[in-house]
Amino acid sequence: MIQYDETHQIFKLDTPHTSYIFGLADNYPGHIYYGKKLGDTDLAWLLRAEDRPQPPSVLRREKTSFFDFFPMEYPFEGVGDFRECCINIRTEDGQEGLELTYQSHRIFRGKRVLPGLPSTQGEDSSTLEVELLDKVTGLTVVLSYTVFDDTDAVAQSVRVRNGGERPLFLTKVLSACLHVEPDMGAGQEMEVLTLPGSWGRERSMQRQKMGYGTVSAESKRGVSSHQSHPFMALVSKNCTQTVGEVYAMNFVYSGNFAARAMKDQFDRIRMVMGIHPERFCWKLAPGEEFQAPEVVLVYSDEGLGKMTRSFHDLYRKHLIRGYWKDRRRPVLINNWEATYFNFNTEKLLEIAREAAKAGIEMLVVDDGWFGHREMDDSSLGDWTVNEEKLPGGFRYLADEVNRLGMKLGIWLEPEMISEDSDLYRAHPDWALQLKGREPGQCRAQYVLDLSRQEVRAYIYDRIKEVLSSANIEYVKWDMNRPLADVGNAVLSPDQQGEISHRYMLAVYEMQERLLKDFPKLLLENCSSGGGRFDPGILYYSPQIWCSDDTDAVERLAIQEGTQLLYPLSSIGAHVSACPNHQTGRTVPLEMRGIAALSGTFGYELDITRLSEDEKKQILEQTKLCRQYSALIREGDYYRLESWQRSHAFDSYMVVSKDRKEALLTCVQVLSRPNRASRRLRLQGLDPEAFYEIEGKSFQGATLMYAGLLIPPAHGDFQARLIPIRQMA
Ligand code: GLA
Question: Could you report the per-residue pLDDT of 190-222, keeping only the tens digit for each?
Fold first, then answer.
């Protein structure tokens, strides 16, 4: 629900358990509060306290000091706010700075779609739009806030319009800003939580003290990236999974971003997030608009666990779309680690035959089926089937695979071009490049300049042809290098700063077209593993490949970091062969299966090389996956123990919304001698109800407050799946 209290000039946005509040002082919108739900709107005193710097109508001589203090809801650069700001412009005269004041607002049911961009959706929501104006240039800024009836999250975005008569250059336009006062956070010191990483080590959880100055998380790689993540949270120092306060932001965008938290001279923290202002400059002709992407905010007063569940609910209900949204996804087998580039139809069918017997439902043909690609150094852009490897193309393969009762999926990397490709020989200027400089290769490839309409139209038509050639029901859309040499000879010199964002809009446009043309297609995004795992791309594909590191132990950490924000149903996780190709580690098949169960579940190995015993185990695993799929997809997630933190033990549980059923996963990663059993406190159960665990009955309260005993296992890499069911 959204209210405007006209007497006090207060906007109050309520979710089921939280309130987000800001108000006007001298027509400057100022942030007042985000936290547990409040009943009152008489809160102007929090914004206009007399012992604080007063607005210009009261104290004209200190306007700059006022800007440097005031918790501006959408802070602007150049006229006295010296903290992290959200917006800046440059005029034709080369001058920077603007001043935004309130003009009008509207409140309506539902939510607008952001043109060309991913965003949360839902009619069961209310939206507030507040229009601000820079009187000198005529620039208008519309701040948009949506709250959902059923989820504790606030979605924010910003639309800018040049209402003046001269062109303007937007040099910075972030999407959200939040202020936290020192005494909020229960009077505690705050910390900043981010998710940095690397290829094969995505999304590790890092907490650092919020001292004076700025903490940032950012990407200038053209993708949200392995190295950083478009997420930042301010957490109270005492924050754990179950206690403490959390103010979190996640960016619904897949390109360059910046998230910054800054503690000012008055001990207040300002957190901002949006498109990275470096590599960005957008020309706005008179009358033109720019839509900045969406940031979603979540507040929790019960630690990280509650934040996680709010994000999961938000993304499951209001972001993920399409045919596969609430459907069980097929258990797949991908040939990448099984064969790399060395395969043909016969080999693929051998894999498919064994896979079908083991209950696997889809074969995915990974990299190497097109052009003359035998290695990673050729043919990207030449999207025609290599009939020497696959005679009869995908039509024949799909028919055979379908005959086995399985589906067929394929890998694509539409955003790239190899130097050794017919496409590059014909159109060398289609690669992103800076004038007079030879563009740099990465994985022996260049990035296609998708900001150009003719380039993306050509590529889209080629992939559409491939997908129309056979019954292809799944696509793994890969993207295997960052954007560098970002320039082209097509856009005018004063628009070169638009290319990175135009590129992202192009990727979104292509994926949107794909979903329109093939509405039942299951799309899985990927970027050298988990380099583009973000809410933006989740809008197009309900699942995303989580990491190229398929080692089950490593995956415990990577998946924990990913599950902090994203529902299990969105996390691409496969059982792979041992010794593992990334780490050389050997882990029992049982643990590999259990680790993959906390994601979309599939296989990435040559099943024809496994023993009969192993194949039987796989049959059992695929049965288990089907049995628990709905619970894992729809249930509430509780993180109990962390291998990332403890380096010993990992545990989480999923509990059905009605609390009747739960699945507990425990992994003893390393074995130690002379250990007693562990008392593991469960979460999320009904305290009054009785539950059956392995033939014994326990009350929910006992399991949650006193705990369940987990005896030490003998040996490393010992995983257990413990079903929990409410007794009738
Ligand atoms: C990327 C992906 C892998 C695989 C290869 C193929 O690295 O993350 O899963 O598809 O590309 O080249």
Answer: 999 999 999 999 999 999 999 999 999 999 999
* Strand-pair category, 661-668 with 416-418: unpaired
- Best residue among 366, 442, 532, 547 to mutate for probing ligand 1's pocket (most ligand atoms within 8 Å of CB) is 366
Return left, alpha or beta for 186; rule: phi > 0 is left, psi -120 to 50 is alpha, else beta.
Answer: left
Residues 6+ away with beta carbon under 8 Å from 95: none
User: Which pLDDT band, with edges at 50, 70 and 90, does 184 fall under?
Assistant: low
Read off the pLDDT of residues 319-347 as tens digits, 9 standing for 90 and up.
Answer: 999 999 999 999 999 999 999 999 999 99
Q: 286 and 165 in contact (C-beta within 8 Å)?
A: yes
Residue 13, SS3? strand
Q: How many other CB atoms sit within 10 Å of the CB of residue 50? A: 7
Task: Decide: pTM greater than 0.70.
Answer: yes
Query: Residue 513 corresponds to which tokens in the numbers above?
Result: 């077209």
**Annotated active-site residue in 81, 152, 382, 478:** 478
548 is catalytic: yes
Check: CB of residue 634 under 8 Å from CB of residue 657: yes
Contacts of 9 (CB under 8 A, 6+ apart): 23, 24, 44
**E strand or H helix at 314, and its extent?**
helix 303-318
Q: Residue 528 in contact with residue 445, Cβ under 8 Å?
A: no
Residues in a beta bridge with 291:
159
Closest by CA position to 403, among listed 315, 304, 471: 471
Instruction: Taking the CA atoms of 392, 398, 402 and 406 in sequence, report the sign of the dihedral they define.
Output: positive
Query: Which residues' Cβ are closer than 6 Å to ligand 1?
Result: 336, 366-367, 376, 411, 478, 480, 526, 528-529, 545, 548
Q: Give the C-alpha distances (Å, rounded to integers) separating 229 from 94, 121, 253, 381, 467.
A: 33, 22, 11, 29, 32
**Strands 574-576 and 602-604, bridge-based pairing:** parallel
Going by alpha carbons, the residue nearest to atom 7 of ligand 1 is 528
Radius of gyration of the chain (CA): 26
- Taking CA atoms only, the protein residue closest to ligand 1 atom 1 is 528
Q: Judge whether 184 and 550 are in contact, CB under 8 Å.
A: no
